[in-house]
Design goal:
The complex is a heterodimer of chains A (184) and B (172).
Chain A: E1 17-20, H1 27-34, H2 37-40, H3 51-62, E2 68-73, E3 76-83, E4 93-100, H4 109-118, H5 121-124, E5 130-136, H6 140-148, E6 152-163, E7 166-176
Parallel strand pairs in A: 4-5
Antiparallel strand pairs in A: 1-2, 2-3, 3-4, 5-7, 6-7
Chain B: E1 4-8, H1 14-21, H2 24-29, H3 38-49, E2 55-60, E3 63-72, E4 80-87, H4 96-111, E5 117-123, H5 127-135, E6 139-150, E7 153-163
Parallel strand pairs in B: 4-5
Antiparallel strand pairs in B: 1-2, 2-3, 3-4, 5-7, 6-7
Classes of the chains: A alpha+beta (184), B alpha+beta (172).
Protein name (chain B): N-acetyltransferase domain-containing protein
GO molecular function (chain B): acyltransferase activity, transferring groups other than amino-acyl groups
Pfam family, one (chain B): Acetyltransf_3
Chain lengths: 184, 172
């Protein structure tokens, strides 16, 4: 046969990744990861049990959020990523958070989404000098995401944060505006 | 050295408060800004010091020579609280702040039962403050880069913490 045909690797299935605003019309996709107890394990929330709670979360938390995006595969939400903002003497830092439907774990999707955020947030928020993320000491998968995305591990903050009624040790990671931007 | 004790500040302490709070060296190293007038300081007393959940005068023979404060967190941060302190320069180098920190932390976990972690930060070059925290039994957890805006510049800080479960340090 003449010519070469493109190699069909499984990677192509996940190549069309994008970030966009999440809306109430995305509720069904949202419920896929929001109801999953594997996803909720290291989150402050319990798995959602009804659509109305999901809609309230989108209306009350997502829509007014300073920076919240759906992680989309072929333009359909499969997770979310967000950055909080602070005021006063803390305004130089923002906290990164993310969540992904468990079906898509292990394919470097969140790592790519984090890199996308790292390559845009410092330009969108010129006052931001530090993007930080706190990860439960037992959440090794999430720690690997941040390491691969070029964040620096700064230390373990002991009994830092209450998650589902218990204080947890958290690993602190950071990426500064002056650090090299991760290559996408 | 005389007796070091902690007690709440009173409005009548305003002159002693201003003596250390307007000290140039104290201003340089702490987040406290210089007070331009007694009125400004009284405002600060009414708005910050008096209503504060835990703001104490560090006293030498009953006279205020500095402050130590603890601010508990809320929500998902309710297991932790932040401690800060400052001392008039002429009293530095005698272990007074260390004594004040040990005294406060010895009762803090009982006074604030939900608190499991007391944290404090120090500028990387603030050797005196770093030594205070180490002597008071705090554990160094890491350097947080460009953590906060200090006097208009983002600065790195050393994060220290003492847990309710950490071994107690003697208050002597």
């Amino acid at each position: 046969m003449e010519g070469t045909s493109p190699v069909q690797s499984s990677k192509n299935e996940y190549s069309n990744l994008s970030l966009r605003l999440l809306d109430v019309s995305d509720i069904d996709d949202f419920m896929v990861w929001a109801t999953d107890e594997k996803v909720a394990r290291f989150c402050t929330w319990e798995p959602y049990t009804n659509k109305e709670d999901g809609l309230n979360f989108i209306k009350n938390t997502v829509l007014p959020h300073p920076w919240f995006r759906a992680i989309c595969l072929d333009n359909r939400p499969i997770g979310a990523i967000s950055v909080t903002s602070n005021s006063g003497n803390d305004r130089c830092r923002g906290e990164l958070g993310y969540v992904l439907a468990s079906k898509y774990w292990g394919k470097e999707i969140v790592t790519r989404a984090v890199k996308m955020v790292a390559n845009t947030i410092f330009e969108e928020w010129p006052h931001l000098e530090r993007l930080e993320a706190l990860v439960d000491v037992e959440n090794v998968g999430s720690q690997k995401v941040l390491e691969k995305a070029g964040f620096q591990r700064e230390g373990v903050l002991r009994k830092y944060f209450v998650q589902k009624g218990k204080s947890r040790d958290m690993v602190m990671f950071s990426l500064l505006s002056i650090d090299p931007r991760p290559q996408i | 050295m005389g007796e070091i004790t902690l007690r709440p500040y009173e409005v009548s302490d305003i002159d002693e408060f201003l003596e250390w709070a307007n000290d140039e060296e104290v201003n340089r190293l702490s987040r406290l800004e210089h007070f331009n007038s007694k009125e400004d300081a009284l405002c600060y007393f009414k708005e910050v010091v008096i209503p504060h959940p835990c703001y104490r005068a560090i006293c030498l023979d009953g006279r205020p020579i500095g402050f130590i404060a603890f601010e508990p967190g809320s929500g998902t941060a309710r297991c932790r609280g932040y401690m800060g302190y400052a001392l008039g320069t002429k009293y530095w180098g005698q272990g007074i702040t260390t004594k004040a920190v040990k005294t406060l932390t010895s009762t803090l976990f009982k006074e604030f039962p939900g608190i499991e972690r007391v944290e404090a930060t120090a500028g990387l070059d603030n050797k005196a403050s770093i030594r205070v925290l180490e002597k008071a039994g705090f554990q160094k957890e890491g350097i947080l880069r460009k953590w906060m805006v200090f006097k208009g510049i983002t600065t790195d800080v050393l994060m220290f913490a003492l847990l309710s479960t950490d071994p107690p340090v003697s208050t002597s």
